[in-house]
Amino acid sequence: MSWFEHVQADRAAGRKRLACLIDPDDLPTGRAWTDFLDRLETSPVTDVFVGGSLLVHRGIGGLLASIKERFSGPVVLFPGSPEQVVGGADAVLFLSLISGRNADYLIGRHVEAGMRIRRLGMEVVPTGYMLIGDGPLTTASYISHSLPIPEAKPSIATATAVAGEMLGLRAMYLDAGSGAGRPVPVAAIAGVREHTSAPIIVGGGLNDAASIQAAWAAGADVAVVGTAIERRPQDLAWLPDPVNASSSPIQR
Prior knowledge:
The chain has a single domain, classed as FMN-linked oxidoreductases (TIM Barrel, Alpha-Beta Barrel), CATH 3.20.20. Helix 6 (154-166) runs parallel beside helix 7. It has 9 helices and 8 strands. The radius of gyration is 17 Å and the shape is globular. With 252 residues, the chain is an alpha/beta fold.
């Protein structure tokens, strides 16, 4: 079963997932890094996402190998650029920034990366990526030259996700952006959940257990935590267990 099929099966059964987003530019090194991976393995985290809007210091290939040595769950690429697409991951989120109108992030970068991904033979998950929030300016918005969907306009997020699903995108990623002051509003998550059947990934601004649990309760299938873990990699005990966040299975 592929990674995405596992996500679909969990969604159908009402099970939730918790992903740690690892930005190659914001990591501990040496013994602190291996100790962090050991803590990650015993934490409630079910998946690791790897990628970021920038890539300055650390290569992706060696990073993936070191993660897979110590973490037994799936490792998924969340690439901010074609250069971040390398072999060794279980899947890659093929992100189309459908909340913006910058052609580079709707299709341009995909043309650059497509043949590389095809040659690598990895699982590809076409994903509608939506930035949602009122500021401050996040790295994703700055790099992509795109405005996020306003927090007070959940209907725009819903309509955008519906259009993306009609275009064939298989998952929706709602993101407040790295280091966001507030998470994606639950109204936006709930609207997308009500009107689409695609699995929903939610990240950005999930800085405590309550915000993660609120995202799950609103309809997120995968909650993604990045900055909050980067700030205190020595303490993962605060992360909620997705097993305890199970919702009602989908009625067929």
